[in-house]
Amino acid sequence: MTDAPHRLADLGVIVVAAGRGERLGAGTPKAFTELGGRTLIEHAVRTVSALSEPGQLVLVVSEARAAEALDIAAAVPLDSRWTVSIAHGGRERHESVRFGIEALHDGIRTVLVHDAARPLTPPEVFERVAAAVRRTGQSAVPAVAVADTLKERGEGGTVSATVDRSALVAVQTPQGFPLDVLAAAHQTAQEREGGASDDDAPTDDAELVQRAGGTVHLVEGSPYAHKLTRPADLLMLEGLLAGAAGAPHGARGAHARTEEGSR
Ligand code: CTP
Ligand code: MG
Questions:
Q1: Which of 16, 34, 51, 197 is CA-nearest to residue 130?
Q2: Residue 93 Cα, ligand 2 centroid: separation in angstroms?
Q3: How far is the CA of 18 from the centre of ligand 1 (A)?
Q4: Which of 123, 181, 222, 229 could in theory staple to 50 by disulfide, Cβ–Cβ 3.0 to 4.6 A?
């Protein structure tokens, strides 16, 4: 190819979208439900299309939805230097991530793992996380301060303590890793999986890296990265989407999502 970029794309973005969405209860897998007239998968592809560098996008979806996911991605104008791949989902989120890792091309060095369930995450958060991974050579996750007062549940439905909130943050996605660090952490977890109970299942990728002794850096997250889990979250996200269309914050992400007309 004559117009090959000077630096080959080394960024991989894995979007995990193979969950069933049981808590949302929409009757369709969550990533294929709509927010503002677009599926969550489409929101994710559009956000990736707004990034300032190219790479490989891996959509992890259930086998039955693979063709539909490809169609959705194909309809989004994506820089031609991006490649889109499909991986089949696993039973648990971490297994879906593992299948996503296996679908990455040679040459990918930095990987971002993102929940399709966070459809309004601004592209700036992806870029902040990727930049932190490259700067430190270690892992990085976006985080926001915890707003609620946190208490520990004691016996008989009483409070046993108030937790010091100052040291706590709520963590979002995309979470970023040097690919070798993430692949090794998943490999180690898979080898140990036999003996592990469900209670011990990691709830994010950073946890796997932490268990393997790796350092995870915190970067600034965004209220727009709110996760769609239950029906009430849909109302919150609809509010964020409506607000983003007219507000300066969330600028590029909101713009990318609303440029084709005022929804
Ligand atoms: N996910 C996945 N594969 C799984 C489970 C989850 O790819 N086996 C993805 C989901 O599609 C979602 C993200 O991981 O984008 C976060 O998971 P969650 O919010 O729990 O989504 P669901 O598992 O779909 O929802 P629920 O737990 O309510 O069924
Ligand atoms: Mg789940």
A1: 51
A2: 7
A3: 6
A4: 123
Contact present, 114 and 192 (Cβ < 8 Å): no
Distance CA 231, CA 24 (A): 5
How far does the centroid of ligand 2 lie from the alpha carbon of residue 16, in Å? Answer: 11
Phi then psi dihedrals of residue 219, to 5 deg = -125, 170
Domains of the chain in start order, with CATH, are 11-262 (3.90.550.10)
* Stated pTM of the model: 0.91
- Of 240, 196, 238, the C-alpha closest to 92 is 196
Q: Which ligand is nearest to the CA of 25?
A: 1
List all residues whose CB is within 6 A of at least one atom of ligand 1: 16-23, 30-31, 60, 89-93, 96, 115-117, 229
Give the Cα separation of 174 and 215 in Å (integer). Answer: 16
C-beta of residue 18 within 8 angstroms of C-beta of residue 62: yes
| Residue 160 burial (C-beta neighbours within 10 Å; 0-12, 13-18, 19+) | exposed
